[in-house]
From TrEMBL:
Compartment list: Cell membrane
Primary localization: membrane
Secreted keyword on record: no
Organism taxonomic ancestry: Bacteria, Bacillati, Actinomycetota, Actinomycetes, Kitasatosporales
MF (Gene Ontology): ATP binding; ATP hydrolysis activity
Similarity comment: Belongs to the ABC transporter superfamily.
One biological process term in Gene Ontology: peptide transport
Keyword Iron-sulfur set for record: no
Gene3D superfamilies: P-loop containing nucleotide triphosphate hydrolases
Span of domain ABC transporter: 8-256
Organism listed in the record: Streptomyces broussonetiae
UniProt-listed PANTHER family: DIPEPTIDE TRANSPORT ATP-BINDING PROTEIN DPPD, OLIGOPEPTIDE TRANSPORT ATP-BINDING PROTEIN APPD
Protein's recorded name: ATP-binding cassette domain-containing protein
An example Gene Ontology CC term for this record: plasma membrane
Length: 341
């Protein structure tokens, strides 16, 4: 069996605050192969972005404790020095942020920012770096790249800025690309163009992609596998088809029931998950979803509130839930019927 390109094992990321310890990520494991896309979904505060900032080594060590293991192509990242991480960031691994306007410097041209990223890791001449910037802008679909290369971020539309961010992220042909909700602020037409662009570039470069989002519709379009996070933990993992068609955790079912269906009746009311995500300063005991779960009372002995359910992943499929498979088949079917009738 081949070694995965990226591997996380029991990752824990805790922040020290004046109010106490925030357990932002609390025992997360997953693998990712080259050329594949892993979609990470969950509500705000579930630990999605914290996980990926940990992979890049971007957390402040003065108030952050990280335990576990992050292996990128065999290189352990948690114990890596800042200089080692700098050589990897923007080169072997790169990130597309949600807000391109906030991430790009307003004082430098688009081309200068892309060229600087290229020069930092290659040591090439300014002319070579500029030519590379023009090439990347052309590759991501920016019209007239030889002139737009000298424009500033405010002269680009939102969709064009996001394309420029993708060009910057891919300028050194990274093997791992982390996309943190890169289409959230874009209209649906531009969003679809960006998704197609990422898929085309992945085919061209063979890049491994982590795609963070709260939008299951986006996941259905781009992901190969899906990891569902809640309260800093993974609650479900599987292929896109498995997770979206046959959810195996009450939280995943709740997410699916709270979004509109494109092929169902238009007058069906949406069913939001009751309550709010847990405080990671003082998270619930046992299963962190149990205070909001419609099925917790079905598990005898109050197990959901006292014991953390195990996530046993077999051939890439698993869910951290105390319900038996027989219970899920009955309860999930009844629940879905109640919500959609």
């Amino acid at each position: 069996m081949s070694t995965p390109f990226l591997s996380l094992r029991d990752l824990r990321v805790h922040f020290s605050t004046e109010d106490g310890i925030v357990k932002a990520v609390d025992g997360l494991s997953f693998d990712l192969e080259k050329g594949k896309t892993l979609g990470i979904v969950g509500e705000s505060g579930s630990g999605k972005s914290v996980t990926n900032m940990a992979i890049l080594g971007l957390h402040d060590p003065r108030n952050t404790t990280m335990d576990g293991e992050i292996l990128l192509d065999g290189k352990e990242l948690i114990s890596a020095t800042e200089s080692e991480l700098e050589k990897l960031r923007g080169n072997k691994m790169s990130m597309i942020f949600q807000d391109a306007l906030a991430s790009l410097s307003p004082y430098h041209t688009i081309g200068a920012q892309i060229a600087e990223t290229y020069r930092k890791h290659t040591g090439c001449s300014k002319k070579q770096a500029r030519d590379r910037a023009i090439e990347m802008l052309r590759r991501v679909g920016i019209p007239q790249p030889d002139t737009r290369v000298d424009d500033y971020p405010h002269q680009f539309s939102g969709g064009m800025r996001q394309r420029a961010m993708i060009a910057m992220a891919l300028v050194n042909d990274p093997e791992l690309l982390i996309a943190d909700e890169p289409t959230t602020a874009l209209d649906v037409t531009v969003q679809a163009q960006i998704m197609d662009l990422l898929k085309d570039l992945q085919q061209e470069f063979g890049t491994a992609i982590i795609f963070i989002t709260h939008d299951l519709g986006v996941i259905a379009d781009i992901a190969d596998d899906v990891l569902v996070m809640y309260g800093g933990r993974c609650v479900e993992r599987g292929t896109k088809k498995q997770v979206l068609s046959q959810p195996d955790h009450p939280y995943t079912l709740g997410l699916l029931n709270s979004m509109p269906s494109l092929d169902g009746p238009v007058d069906v009311p949406l069913s939001p998950i009751p309550g709010s995500p847990p405080s990671l300063l003082n998270p619930p005991s046992g299963c962190r979803f149990h205070p909001r779960c419609a099925f917790a009372e079905k598990v005898p002995g109050g197990l959901c509130s006292t014991e953390r359910p195990k996530l046993d992943v077999v051939e890439g499929r698993g869910a951290a839930c105390h319900l038996t498979q027989e219970q899920k088949q009955d309860l999930f079917a009844d629940f879905a019927a109640t919500r959609h009738n």
